[in-house]
C-alpha cells in the first residue's frame, strides 16, 4: 500500500465515512477533492483537475472550490443526484501544532438539502423511508425544509408501496435494501430522478427523544421502527438537532381514495402527461393559493382525496361560505398575500440558517395573523370559526423580533448591523465607543489637512493595514519631514500612520469586533428562543395553509361556475352538465360542450362509449373521474348539478403515455393494470378504460375486452366508463343489465365530419380514423390509399356493395370478415337502405337527429338502444312535420343580421315550438 502524507492519510480516513458521497475536504480557504472524487467532480462541475504530491509514487488527482462559493457547487452536485459530505477543520489552524483535526459536519443529500434550486417554493422535497417487518410495511415521508413528517403502514403489498411513494415523489428513498431493490424497478414511474440509499441502522432511543415519550408510545410498532431508521439516517447526515421535526402526522391509508401513479398521471392531477409540467394540470387550474404552504397543502389534498363524509362536508362548508362571500374572500386573500412561507422559515430557524431577513419575514407574517383570525372568527362558516379559534397569534414572538432586529437587516448574521439600538445596553456602549472613535478620526483628518496644508489628505481604512493617512505623491514635498511614520507605498500615493492613530484604531477595532460578536450572539439567542416555539409556529402555519386552500378553492369555483356537490348516501352518481375543468378552461369562452352522466343500479353502472377518434371520449371519461376527485377533496365541481358517491379508488387505463415503462409492450402494461384492477377494485371503485383491448389482434382484443367488461359487471359491480373502437361490443347491452351503450355524436356533411362532443345513447358505427389522419396532416397519397383499402375491405365483407364505416382497429381483411360475420350491429346506412330511405336523405336526416340531441336534450334519452334505434328515430323525424319545421327555423335563422332583441324573440319562438314536439 502506498505511504501517503499525514494529510492524505487523514483524508482517506474521513472518506471511509462517506463512501457514497463527494468529500469536500476543507484546506484553508478551499474545499479540496482527491482521487476518484476529484476526477468525477472536475467533470461534473467543469473545474480544473490538477495533481498533488501526496507521498505516493504518483501525483494524486485533485480539484477544489473556494469555500465561500461552495454552496453553488454543492447544489449542482445535489441536483445531479449526488451526495456531498462536508469535512471542516475543527481547530484553528493558526494555533494548532501539527495536523488540524478535521471531520464531516454534514452530509447533504437530495432528500436532506435545505436550500437551492431543488427546493421549489410551492412544492415539497421529500425523503421517504420504507421498512418491512412482521408482514407490515411502513413508510415515513419527511420534508426537512418544512418540518412535515408523515408516517403510515399497511399489511405488506408492493402496489401499496408504489402508490404511496408516487404521491410523495421523493428526491431520495432510504430503508430496507430489499424494498429499495423492488422500488428501483418502478423508478420510471416517478416524475423526478430519485436517489436510493440502503439504510438499516435504527436508533430508537434517538427517535424517542426527538418525538417525546408520550407520542412514541402511541405509535404502532412498525411505524416506530420506520421512524427510528429515518432518524438514524438524519442524525448521521445532518449531525445537528432537527427541531423542525417536532411533530409526527400518522395517517391511515384507508382514509383516502387510492390513486395509483398511472391514474394520477392519466388524469393529469398535478402535471400533464406529455410535458410533465404543472401547467395544464388540475393543480394548475385550482391553485389560487396566496402562500407557499397553502400551495403545498392544496397539492397534498389533490393527492389524497378523502373517503369520509364528515371531513369532506367540513371542507365544503368553508368553501361554500367563501364562494358566496366575495368581500371576505378578498380580505382573506389580502392578509394571506403578506404571509411568507412560515414552514420554511421555521425550518431555517431550526436548522440554524435563518438570518435577520428571515426573522423580519416571520415578524411581518405574524403581523397578519390577528386580521386573519378575526376574519375567520366573525365569518358565517363553522369550519373557519373553528380554525380561527385555534389560531395562536404568537404575538410575543413577533414583539421579540421587533424589539431586536433592525428593519433593513443585512443578509449576513456575522458582520453586525442586525440588532436594533436600545435592545442591549452593552451593545449600545460599544456602538457609542466605535462611533466616537470614528468621529475622532474624522476630526483628525480635518486637523491634519489644516496643519499640513494638503487639501487632498485623507484617512482611509483597509483590513490589512488598518487606518492610515494617505498623501498623493504630488503633495509629498509639502509634508514636513518626520511628521508621520511611513507604512505603505502605492503607485501615486504614500500611506502613513501615527502612534495616536494606531491607538485609536485599536480601540475602534476592538469595539467593532466586540460589537459584531455581541450582535451575533444576541441574534443566535433570539433564534434559539424562537426555536423553542417551533411547534406553535408550525401549528399556526397549518391553519394559515388551510384557510388559504379554502379561499383558493372558493375563488376558482366561483370563477368557473362550479357547483357544490351533494355526497350521495348510496352508490349513485348523477351529474348534469358535467365539464372537464381544465379542457373547459383552456378552450375559448363557452366552447366546451357539457355532458351529463348517470351511473346507478337502475340506469346502469357501466357506460360503454363508442365514437370516432377525436370525438371527446377520453375527455368525457376523465371529467367524471375529476369531478369525483374534486368533490372528495372538498372542492366545488364543474357541473350544473352533481350528486356523487364516495369513491374508494379510481383505476384508469388511458392513452399511450405509459408505453415507455420498463420495456414492456403497451399491451402487457394494459393487461398488468387490468390484473391489478380485477384484484383491487371494490363495488365503490370507479374504473375508466380507454380503448380496451387495443394493441393486440382485433379478434383477441375484442374477446378480452368483452371478458373484462363482463367481469367488471358481474364480479366487481362497480362504476365503469369504458370506451372502445369495437362497435361490435354494443351487443353487450343486451346481455348485461347494468351496461348502457353511449356514443359521441358526430355530424357528417359532404366529406367533412363535425364532432359535436355530445354524449348520446346508442353505439356509434364508425371511427372516422382515416378522416382524423387527414386532419392530422398525413399526405393525401396515404389518405387516398387508406380509403381505397377500406373500400376493398368493405367489399370483401359486404360483397353486395353496401357500405360500412370501419374503425381504425381493423388490421386485416380476414379480421374484417370475422367482424362482419360476428357483428350484431347494423350500420346505419344499411338500415337506412333496407328501410327504404334514400341514402342522401338519410345522411341529412341523421345530421338533424344529432343536432336535435344537442338542442333538445341535456340528459341522454333512455328509450334509445343502439344504432337500430337511432334509425327508428330517423324515420320518426322524417314523418314529423313539426320537427322538420322546428329544424328549418333554426337552419334559416340569419344570426349575423339579427339584433339581440330579434335573437331573443327567435329563441322564444323556438322554445314555444319545442314544447309541442
Ligand atoms: N365536451 C367537449 N367540448 C368541447 N371540446 C371537447 C370536448 N371534449 C373533447 N373536446 C376536444 O376534443 C379533443 C379530442 O378529445 P378526446 O381526446 O377526448 O377524444 P377521443 O374521443 O378520446 O379521441 P381518441 O379516440 O382519438 O383518443 C380534445 O382535445 C378537446 O380539445
From TrEMBL:
GO terms for cellular component: cytosol. Coiled coil: none annotated. InterPro entries: DNA_mismatch_repair_MutS, DNA_mismatch_repair_MutS-lik_N, DNA_mismatch_repair_MutS/MSH, DNA_mismatch_repair_MutS_C, DNA_mismatch_repair_MutS_clamp, DNA_mismatch_repair_MutS_core, DNA_mismatch_repair_MutS_N, DNA_mismatch_repair_MutS_sf. GO terms for molecular function: ATP binding; ATP-dependent DNA damage sensor activity; damaged DNA binding; mismatched DNA binding. The keyword Ribosomal protein does not apply. Pfam families: MutS_I, MutS_II, MutS_III, MutS_IV, MutS_V. Residues 685-701 form the DNA mismatch repair proteins mutS family domain. Gene3D superfamilies: 1.10.1420.10, DNA repair protein MutS, domain I (3.40.1170.10), MutS, connector domain (3.30.420.110), P-loop containing nucleotide triphosphate hydrolases (3.40.50.300). Keywords: ATP-binding, DNA damage, DNA repair, DNA-binding, Nucleotide-binding. GO terms for biological process: mismatch repair. It comes from the Bacteria. ATP binds at residues 611-618. PROSITE patterns: DNA_MISMATCH_REPAIR_2 (PS00486). NCBIfam families: mutS1 (TIGR01070), PRK05399.1 (NF003810). Belongs to the DNA mismatch repair MutS family. This protein is involved in the repair of mismatches in DNA. It is possible that it carries out the mismatch recognition step. This protein has a weak ATPase activity. HAMAP family: MutS. This is DNA mismatch repair protein MutS. It comes from Paenibacillus etheri. The gene is mutS.
